[in-house]
Amino acid sequence: xxxxxxxxxxxxxxxxxxxxxxxxxxxxxxxxxxxxxxxxxxxxxxxxxxxxxxxxxxxxxxxxxxxxxxxxxxxxxxxxxxxxxxxxxxxxxxxxxxxxxxxxxxxxxxxxx
Length: 113
What we know:
Blueprint: H1 3-9, E1 11-22, E2 32-45, E3 50-64, E4 71-84, E5 87-93, H2 99-103
Antiparallel strand pairs: 1-2, 2-3, 3-4, 4-5
């Protein structure tokens, strides 16, 4: 198998988003488009022991007629190194598994995404 084809099979791109449009009626009330959430996911498996995972998130990006604001953040970026079948070392920027939100915050497991 060519090296480029092998690398493509080990790399994953994904994402999801949530967009709101509000069209108010009345004078001087422009419509508002809000990119409430857009998340891009990138992962790569280097070999059977080492993997990389990352998540970049854009929240509340107003497009037209809204208040300026919003944010872009690197939510997660970490390496997993499998030391044994029962033990993996994780290092990097990691969401701590505290409460239901951090453990299940992606669609369709979190109501509201």
